[in-house]
Structures are given as structure tokens and as C-alpha cells.
Amino acid sequence: MSALFGPPRRPRSSGLTFWHALRLCLLLLLGASGAAAEQPLRQPDIVVTALARRLPPPERTLDSEDVAAYGLDTVGEVLAEVAAQDGDRDEAAYLVNGRRVAGLGSVSDLPAEAIVRVEALPLGSAVSLGARPGQRVYNIALRRRLDLGTARISTQVATEGGWSSSRAELNYTRIKEQRRLSLTGKLRHDDALMESERGIVQPASSPPGAASFRSLLPAADRLDLSLAASDQLGSWLSGSLTSRLALAGRRSFLGPFAPTGSPEEPLDQRARTLVASTDLTVNGQVGAWQLGLFANVIYNHARTATDNVVVAEPRPVPLVVRSAAESVGGQLSAFGPLLQGPAGPVTFSLNAGASRDRIAGKRLFRGVTTRSATVLHSSTLTAALDVPITSRAGHFLAALGDLSASLELSRQRVSDFGSFSNYRLSLLWRPTPKLNVDGSIGRNTSAPSIATLDEPAIATPGVRYFDPLRAETAEVTLVTGGTPTLPRQTDETRRLAVNYNPLRSLGLRLTSEYSEFRQLNATSEFPSPSALVFQVFPDRFARDAAGRLIAVDARPVTFPRRSERQLRTGFLLDLPLGRGGGGVASVAEEDEGAAERRADTQSRVRPRLQVSAAHTWLMSSELVARAGQAPMDLLSREAVGFGGLGQPRHRFDASVAYAERGLGARLSVQSRGVSFIEASGTTTNTLRFQPLTTFSLRAWVRGERLVPRSPFMRGVRINLNILNVTGVRERVEDRFRMTPLAYQPGYRDPVGRSVELSFRKTF
Q1: Which residues pair with 580 in a beta bridge?
Q2: How many other CB atoms are there within 10 angstroms of residue 305's CB atom?
Q3: How far is it, in rounded angstroms, from Cα 190 to Cα 220?
Q4: pTM score > 0.85 for this model?
């Protein structure tokens, strides 16, 4: 097999450009701080209120009772659930108490009890907050005062046995006005799941008992520690610091070491990783302008030792691969009203950033050491403008409702990949208070990540791989890592979304979103095996003298073009069924006494029913595998090759939830249609991936509901999660209704049905 580990990496230039852009923002920041002393400053809460009036009303608002009805533990879990219901696929932008933050990291570990409300702002309103056009913006209002500790333990087991997972978590959070402190520790252990515990059929050439020496899931341990702090540094300045440390270990079993034909001991692969990161954010409020500085440092060290069988060696020979990745970056930003237009203020945003990424690798095998190192420097300058065109509140062309346009232009330079320009244009139209229409078009060119380019290659033996040319499952050495020759990728996107709230009093929201994208030089994971994959990438496969497949280079590849059109429609109904409740509180209303009165919100949730459903129709999906080749329809069984694996034409997601005082339950369903992949070079033996529908159940109950008079049970919540309630697995069959060994149900879903029980207490 030619070039199994790729050509040597060419040296990269080390020059860093666009420093003039950073100086420009720095001067703007320093100049604004000087101007701050010459004009009266608003108090933080007043600034938040003034800023909110310039934004369109939120499409959806969740108060503290709505949040409690989810039965989730942290702010991060709540936002993930809300984003999933909104159908958001892109990374969102966040406000905390009305102020822009770089990401959710500084508040993600806070307990859900810290939330006063969550507001989902319309798509198209992000530029006025310094975010990218088309981003969803969530405003998270936190309590002004909170002193809370939480402890959580959980265990998850597979009902078929053989696998379990245990977790423990401690968190302490203190909030006093703008000062926040959160300390979190998490510990997790996962058992290994062996092939013998799922009845995996072994190839005829395997030695007896081989299934007991191969793992479907590795044994894993992980420790996470985090600290997040935020404070008001001055009358106009605030800052936050988030530091994280993660230690993880993993052991996989690769099969028996059987030089004499009978199992003696398992071959294994052991991996250890250490990831440390620190994020620093500083925000300044000068009049109506917000200035920001964001800096981050990430260090990632990994070591993987893989046993290999070498002819004439009595013991396995380890291949040891080490990698150390470092990333240092920073960004300066400024946004605010540039001028007053007829329909409202025109908002301008300017961002300048730079980063340095380095990865160094070391491979040691049989006393021979090879090293590699790559450094990437990048710099970016971005400017965005949000222009109100019509306004009801401003009485300018009020008959048309509220209409605004946003434009973002950026220039980026990455060493060895050159310079490229990007743009995004979006429109937001609100003809009535119940209807939002937004659309966007954009073009974005980006360089591959440094890990995708030069992560050290790891060769893992004994991997089951389907060989379509011989219609058999082979055990191969699978090579993973980075691909040095990847080019930069260009994404072109178009989208149009409509949100309609016909009955706001009942919390009914109807959504529909059409999107299409086209990728040029699309970087992709190595595709699933098919005859065309073997034809397009012949140098990625190696065979022995008898023609049997023995090695596969599965590192990332590039396709000249890929395109897709999709339509997603759905609805969300949030229906209160009883009286009472606290309503939506503002940040200013959350004084210390109010916080104490609302501390038991989760026990006071009034009865409510929530129903959501969404249907995703993949209208078209095409791929050009080689330059000059006609596009392939990935949704058709006649599409020889990548045939739609993971690309069903229809996908359906729905959930029904009920919650009341001290208890709740949510039933979720996910359904995907049939998909195909050609197996043997002709469509006469197409593999059919059968439709799959899975159900999951999450239920919770407060301790006071179970034992009302127990002091210990106060602040306790018990959760029961059942994943894949029916225990079904995806089935893959050929035209003879036979399943290839590489596609056995146990490989498609090793765990199957699992039950998780967790105990959480606040103190």
C-alpha cells in the first residue's frame, strides 16, 4: 500500500499578519476608556434594559418554572435541550444578564436553579449584539443572589448486561450581584463491553473464544475539574475567567494474541489524555458601546500505546504515539450604535483576532522514533453592520412591520493557506408580532484544523472491515490521524426560516426552515466501504498475495464538491394546565428575599404539558467524488458508492412531556427512514439499512414528593432515564436478507437498552 502514513509534512511559515487590525481595536478600547471618565455611565442593570429594547421580542421565553419542568441539572444541559427543540445546528451566541459573552463555558456548569429565565431571540438579530449573522442568540438571566451546593451520583446499566457506567459530580455556586463563582468536579467510569457479551459472530478464521478478547466499547475513566469566576471590575468594566482540567484514560481490547493458533492473551490499546484550558473575557460598557477582549489557551497531550503482532516476535510489540497540541488565541471586539437611522440605530461591529496553533507528534516502534511538528498562524478581521429598514415602534413605514438587514465581511489569513474573504447577508422581517421571517446567504472559506492536518498516525490492528469487492468481512490494520495534504474548504449556504406564534397565550410555535449548502473541497471522514470508495481511493487499501484486505488508511479525505437541500418543519406546544406559578421575573426583581422565596421553584411547578415534533426532509444530497465526475445522488440506491449511509431521506423527532409539583416525565422518539449503500460493484447487491425508530424516557421526582416530612429529602431529586426503551437495533441486509459480519446489530448499537438512575441533592 503506497503512502500508508502520507508524505512528510512540509515546513510552514511562521509569519503573523494583520497585527494592524489588532492595534486598531486596542486603540479603540483605550480611547473609549479615556472617554469613559468624561461622561456619565449607566448602571449595569439599566444598560441591560436599554439594550434589550433594541432587540426584536424573543421567539420563546422560559421562566424558572419552565426550566424546572425539564428536570435537568445544569445551565448547559438546559440550553442544549432548548437548542435541540429549536432545531439549531450551528453554534449559538449567548448573553448572560443581557451582556455578550464569548461562549457558554463560564456558566455551563452552574446549577439550573440559577436561571431566572431564558430568551431565544430570532435568527437575524445577532449582529446588533456583536455576533455573526444567522446565529441564534440566547439571553440567560441569572439570579442576583444564590449560594448553592449540589451533589449528584448516577449509575447506568445495559439491560442485556455486560456494561455499566458510574458518575459522580460536585458543584458549588455563589452569585452576588455581578460576582459569580462556580467550582465543579466530575468523575466517570465506564466498563468495557466484550463481543462475547453481545453474541457477535466471529469470522471462520478466528481462533476459538476470540469474542472474549475483543471489546465493543472500551473501559474508560475520566476526571474533570473546572473553575469559573466573574466579577464587576469597575463601574464600566467586567471580566470572567474559566479554567478546566480533564484527565482521561481508555483501554480497548483488539483480539487474542495467538501465535500458535489458540488464544493466549488479549492485544490492547491504551490511551491517556490531558487537556487544560483557560479562557479570559473582559467586557467594557462605554455609553451604548460594548468593548470586549477574549483570550484563550489550550493544551492537549495524548499518549496511545497499541499492541501489534510482528512475525517472529514472541510477544506483542507496542506502537507508542504521543502528541502535544497547543493553541493560544485572542480577539478584540467593539460593537454599538453607529448612527441613528429613520427606523432606528444602525449597529456596527468590529472584531480582530489572531491565534497560534502547534502540534508535535512522536511515534516509537521497535526502537525507531519518528517526529513531526506543524505550526499554524492565523489572523482575522471582521466587520458587520445591522441596518433597520422599517419599524413599527419608530413609526417609519410601520405598515410593513419591522425589517432589518445585516451584512458581515471578514478577511482571514492562515499560514500556508493564504488569505481569503468571507461574507454573510441576512434579512429579518417581523410583519406582525406573531410572525418572524428571516433569511441569509453566505460564503465561508476556512483552513483545516491543525489536528486534521498533522495528528500523528495511529495503526490499530484487528479492526473488522467490510470488503465489498470480495463480499466478506476482514480484520485489517486501520490507520487514523491527520492528512497533511488537505486543502482549504469553502462553504456556501442559503436558508429561509419562518416562525409563527398563532396562540402565544398557549405557547404554540410553528416553525419551518429551508436550507441548502454547497461545499467545495469538502473535508470528510473516510467514507464507509463500497466499491466506488475502493475505486476513488485505491492507494488507501492494501491486500496480501491472496487478495485479502489487510490494511486501510482511514484518515480524512477531500471531495471536490458536496451539496444538500433540506426542509425542516415542526411545532412546539407548551400548555399550562393549572393556576399559580411565579411568572417571568426580571433580573432586577431577584433580590435576596425573592431568591429565597423562589428557591423551591422545582417543587412548585404548576401542571403543564409540552408537545414538540419536527420532520426533516432531505430533499437532495449529491457528491462529486472525483474531479470531472458527474454528481452522485446519495439518496438513491442506484448511487453506486457512498449510497446514503447516515443520509436517510426522512427523519422524525418528537417528544411529549408532563410536569407538575415535584415530578415530571418526558417521552422522546427518533425515527429515520431507509438508506442504502452499494456493496459489490453492481446495484444487484445493495445493502439496505432498515428504518429505525427509538424511544427514550426521562422521569424525575422531588424528594419532598416521596417523603414530605423528611429533612434529608428536601432538595433531593431522583431521575430515571431509559434509553432505547424497546431495545431495537438497526438492521443491515443484502439482497439475500443476510447481514455482513461487519454490520451485525451488536456493532451498530453495542449497549442497546440502558437504564440510568441518578440521585441529586442541593444544600
Answers
A1: none
A2: 17
A3: 5
A4: no
